[in-house]
Amino acid sequence: MKCKQLSVLLLISNMVLFGACTKDVLPETTTEEGLELTSSARNTLSEGEVVAIQTPLEGSTISEGSIFTVEGLTDENVDLVACRLWIDGEFHSYDKEAPYVFTVDGLPLGEHTLMVRANGADGVNHDSEVITITIVEANAPGSITINSISNRDTFEEGEPIHITSTSSDGDGIKSVRLWIDGNYYDINKEAPYDFTIDHLTPGTYEIVLKMKDEKDNNTTSAPVMIEVEAPKAKEIVWEDFSLAILPYVRMSGNQDIIIDKSVVGTTEFLILSASHGNPPAGSYEKESTVEGGDWTKVAYGGDDDKSAEVWVRQVNNENKNVHGQINTKNAAAKLSVLTYDGLISTGETQNLQFHNTKASIDHNGEEGPFLVVIATDNGKESSNSDLNYGYKDNGNVGDDMTMLYLTHEDQFYDNSFSVRGGAVSIQLIP
After folding, report:
1. I want to staple 430 with a disulfide (CB 3.0 to 4.6 A). Which of 18, 233, 257, 298 is the partner?
2. Contact residues for 192 (Cβ-Cβ < 8 A; gap 6+)
3. Are 369 and 426 in contact (CB under 8 A)?
4. 3-136 with 142-229: one CATH topology?
5. Distance CA 28, CA 187 (A)
6. For position 41, what pLDDT does the model report?
7. pLDDT under 50 in the chain at which residues?
8. Do 133 and 56 meet the contact criterion of CB atoms below 8 Å apart?
9. Which CATH code is given to the segment(s) 142-229?
10. How far apart are CA 302 and CA 15, in angstroms?
């Protein structure tokens, strides 16, 4: 059987022509939502058929307001004078020349039947099979744009990344999903549909938002590529340190360490500059001790006459109000706390003593910075240190000084005064 096969015409405007089912994806899944499209138009007649509807197909769905065409497929061996289109059992229009094409618009929402009647030259009419189509509400196009981050933005590992967007959809927004590197991550069903992530490890990531409207249609944002880098160590600078002179009474036995306020998340260095009264050489072997407060002794430098002693702790909720006690073995001393605004650890430590010489320390190539504490005898002090302070012995002004330095120098040297006393150098690690 020879057929007059008509070429498939494109829809004139906004035509949605498919026999499809919507595949809904639950929020818990990581599968893309989409549509399953139908097969191509009919192009053959069955045995005994004279006319058939080539397009649209049975069960097609067409958007409200669309203009679409109905195309007839006829038997070339039958002489026809015209073909007529019937919609819902009523005559709609006719075409006297092949290919037989009918333009349709303005159909209301709902199901409609289509039938093409071929009028033979011999006066015999031939009807096609009746097909059913459905006019559905038009899908209002949606849009979604990520606006809080841009391509090539860089973030530190652990840094919160806030993802916001500008979105609109005439059919209403049901939800927005966040996808990272093609993998579903999270869903937000409430405006303004924002997300915050802080779990990404160093690397490059593609960020995409997918919006579903109230008709389950999906709109995908343009992807945004971001970089996540390993966090950089905080530079240790002197401006992040603060010193407080603590109450101290010269006595034997334990006395309370009295700190006005310890702050969680800081690092405290308890510094004791002690004078031992010039006992005979080698006869003073009484280092100070601390009990409680989570203090760890990291350095003792000096001799029988003068010493510098340092303890360290990181302040947390458990120890912030527990400062412990110190026993200086009746030394004339200055007790202070040097607080760093942050958490740092200590590394290599050097314990030193100087006898009327310039202060010099070889850090042996270790990476700084270093906290250097020099406790001097007989009132001499540095003009190069970051901080100098003296002390009182039972209320009387003493002549001994303590000098603090924060240095990166591998070969530390202070030629501004001659040191007689003890010193320590403590490596600081961010």
Report:
1. 233
2. 164, 165
3. no
4. yes
5. 9
6. 67
7. 1-39, 392-397
8. yes
9. 2.60.40.10
10. 92
d(CA 26, CA 33): 9
Distance CA 327, CA 297 (A): 13
Please state which CATH number belongs to domain 3-136: 2.60.40.10
Strands 153-156 and 224-229: parallel
Q: Where are the beta strands (DSSP E) in 317-395?
A: 325-327, 332-340, 345-362, 370-376, 387-393
Closest by alpha carbon to 178, among 204, 226, 216, 211?
A: 211
In the chain, where the domains are located:
3-136, 142-229, 238-429
What residue type is 116 in one-letter code?
V
Give the residue among 219, 227, 232, 276 at the shortest CA–CA distance from 250: 276
User: Tokens representing 275?
Assistant: 């004078």
Which two tokens mark 191?
A: 């405006």
pLDDT tens, position by position, 170-210: 788 999 999 999 999 999 999 999 999 999 999 999 999 99
Amino acid at 93: S
Q: Which residues of 209-238 are buried (b: 16+ CB within 10 A; e: fewer)?
A: bbbbbebebbbebeebebebeeeeeeebee
